[in-house]
Amino acid sequence: MNHRRSEPDLLAVAAHWADPSGWPVPLRFDPEERWYARLATADDHEVWALSWLPGQGTDLHDHGGSAGAFRVVAGALTEETVVGGTLRPRLLATGSGRRFGPRHVHVVTNRGAEPAVSVHVYRPALVRMTRYHLLDGRLRVAEVAEAGRSW
What we know:
The chain is built from one helix and eleven strands, in the order H-E-E-E-E-E-E-E-E-E-E-E. By secondary structure, it is mostly beta strands. It has a single domain, classed as Jelly Rolls, CATH 2.60.120.
């Protein structure tokens, strides 16, 4: 008999946090940079909220070995992943989301005309993130960012 505690579905956790009126911090939009705030932590995961004004986005990055999921709770975001040495975009509208494994590398951007809001869940909690450049179809490490120093 397996007595191991089942792990929560990270996309379901993100959906649970989809309503900003229940957040412990007020939602904000920052014209200078993406706003983000940690909403919750648990023994095996953490939950973050992010806001994205039109044109705001991330660099190409991974999550330092953490698996995760994110859900768009307002607006739309474009996620680009590396496929065959190039970036392939995927539009995620309000209410949609995706799960990803510990080796996932992507770029997320608000390419729309309206602000966007998303909830991200990571297992285990983020300790580091690696930023990359895509050169000649290959990922090249640009920077390793550490929790507590970079965010």
